[in-house]
Amino acid sequence: MALAEVALPFRRAWRPDRRELRTNGVYFLMNGINSGLANAGATATALWMAPSQMPLPLWLAVPTALLISTFFGYWWHRAGHESARLWRFHGIHHVPQKLNVANNNTVHFVDLLIGNLVTTVPLAWLGFSEMAVATAGFLTSFQGFFAHLNADVRLGVLGRWVMGPEHHRYHHSVRVAEAGNFSSSITLWDRLFGTFVHRPGRSPAQIGIEGGQGFPADTALAASVVAPFCRADRNAGKR
């Protein structure tokens, strides 16, 4: 995907500079550890609560697990926009005014940790096999990076069912009215709940957060980690 950004850039101005690459490299390492902790927590919870493994073949278990995990992921993501308290954490991801594979990692650790638990614990508790959970998790993670791709890639008819860069750019639009697409993998839940935005061949005029809403700059990693715990106005920044 990084090579695609070099070969077929959607906007050259969206290429990360060295400072952004350093910051997102640290985010990548931090959130990798974070994801590992979340998976360990999900496994421990499942072992405590879970029934025996579900007797589904892998070819059926993986798409079923994807449907379930993306359903919970959709509502967690949407809550991050509709709850003023949760927006203080999730808004960190919307601060960058450019989209690329690297800044897919710009996510507050609390937002990522709970999001991983929300999407993984139900699968483990329902008894999906380790391979089904791991495969569904990999596909969702891969699609999350793909959705942030700064490359002129279009899905065509497939874009009615699978989220891609064209969809996710609108999710990051400064204009809240057009910033739907809370799922970054499949379109089903956005379609069902009225938040699907599909405008093939078009893109939002600007991405980011209008006025900044008091969030630190996306390269201010330490400030971004601390900021959600320090904001006094709990209604600030609700989208």
Summed up:
This protein is an all-alpha fold.
Topology record:
Layout: H1 2-7, H2 18-49, H3 58-82, H4 84-90, H5 109-126, H6 130-147, H7 165-171, H8 188-192, H9 221-230
Helix pairs in contact: 2-5, 3-4, 3-5, 3-6
Could you describe the 3D structure shown?
With 239 residues, the protein is mainly alpha-helical. The chain has one domain (2-230). Helices cover 54% and strands 0% of the residues. It contains 9 helices and no strands. It has helices at residues 2-7, 18-49, 58-82, 84-90, 109-126, 130-147, 165-171, 188-192, 221-230. α3 crosses α4 (84-90). The longest helix has 32 residues, at 18-49. The protein is globular. The mean pLDDT is 90.
Tertiary shape: globular
The average pLDDT score comes to 90
Q: What proportion of the residues form beta strands (DSSP E)?
A: under 5%
Q: Percent helix among the residues?
A: 40-55%
List descriptors.
single chain, 239 residues, mainly alpha, 54% helix, 0% strand, globular
